[in-house]
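Minutes, project huddle
Topic: does the predicted pose make sense with adenosine-5-diphosphoribose bound?
PN asked that the exact inputs be recorded in the minutes so nobody has to dig through chat later. Recorded below.
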Amino acid sequence: MEELIRRAAADLAKAEYAIALTGAGISTESGIRDFRGPDGIWTKHPEAEMEAYEAYDKLRRDPKEHWEKILEPGSFFSLFDEVMNALPNRGHLALAELESMGIVKLVITQNVDSLHDKAGNRNVIEYHGGVSKLRCMSCNTRYRREEYDLQGLKAEGKLPPRCRKCNGVIKHDGVYFGEAIPSDAAHASLEAAWKCDLMLICGTSAVVYPFAQLPRVARDKGSGRGGRNEWGSHASGGSGVTIIEVNGEATPLTREGVSDYIILGKIGDILPRIVEEVRRVRG
Ligand code: APR
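Predicted holo structure (tokens), as shared on screen:
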């Protein structure tokens, strides 16, 4: 592990445009369950995953009923309430430190918990939206959650919440299964994946698209030359980019040779040691 930490620190220190991609695994040490890990929400509650898959269709069919259901205690969305009071952990703080050192230029996260913002990162794309926001389904305007008294609207029979600009239906900013990624987040993320020369991927099983396509975009740009990683697979394409995973388990990115190497273990242990080593390398 130490050799890989030194290798990652050296790669980060010499990168021109490093970006970080994160998933639920970076927030488990803040007390927020992930989805597909051993104690994941989908692992433990497959019925909640089914409910989440159906949520978008129900919302479009009957927004009023959808909102009345998700505002009930114990609904799938109440699982997000554990998110609102969570605090960033050493993994988030390490990425914020790498941004303040001018190394990590951007974090693209699948998480809706806003913990990268709370940790101090300024350049964050919430690829799947944010639990603290609401968004108009017609004009994409985003509102802070506290700008609407949702329980009050429910009590007065005035759901769904309506956009103050275009009167469109308001939804949670979190991207539902089957819903398109907001175009601004999608475009900016694709551009960064194409531009980066180092991608640090932390805490994602890399099975949900289109997010999981971003490392492949980075890998496939450039010469298209194949390669091998220590898992013996052939990388599908390009050079000119270093892709590093930090995760509790191997992922399709590891097995398909999309990443150059994986540092297996707890993100909260590994990232601070990488930052320490970068400081040492930089002197
Ligand atoms: N340190 C390192 N790895 C960890 C840690 C930790 N402390 N905790 C969990 N992990 C790993 C798990 O082993 C797993 O491989 O993080 C990964 C989390 O994977 P998922 O639970 O699938 O989360 P994620 O990849 O973010 O899911 C993507 O799926 O349901 C949707 O919208 C949801 O954004 C989410 C998307």
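Observations noted during the meeting:
- DSSP finds twelve helices and eleven strands in the chain.
- Residues 23-25, 28-29, 34-37, 40, 110, 128, 203-205, 208, 247-249, 266-268 surround adenosine-5-diphosphoribose (CB under 6 Å).
No decisions taken; revisit at the next huddle.
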